[in-house]
Amino acid sequence: MKVVLFMRFVALVVLVSWIDSSHAFGAAAPSTALMKAKQEAEAKGFAFETNRDEIIAKAKKEGKLRALSSLDPGSFKPMADSFKKKYPFIDIQIQEITGTEALQRHLLELKAGTLKDWDVLHASEDSYNDFTTHAMKLDVLGMAEQGVLKINPKMIDPENRTVVAVASGLCAVAYNKTLVPPDRVPNQLEDVLRPEFKGKKLVVDIRPHCMSALMVAQGEEWVVNYARKLREQEPVWVRGNTRALTSISVGEYPMHQLTNYHSCVRATWKDKSKNLTCKIIEPVSIRIQEPDFVVKSATNVNAALLFLEHQASPEGQKILDEIEPMKSSIFGPGQVSKLLQGKKISLNDFRTYHKTQGWMKAIVEAYGFPKAEIR
Question: Where are the beta strands (DSSP E) in the chain?
Answer without folding.
Answer: 64-69, 91-96, 120-122, 164-176, 202-205, 236-238, 255-260, 276-279, 284-294, 345-348
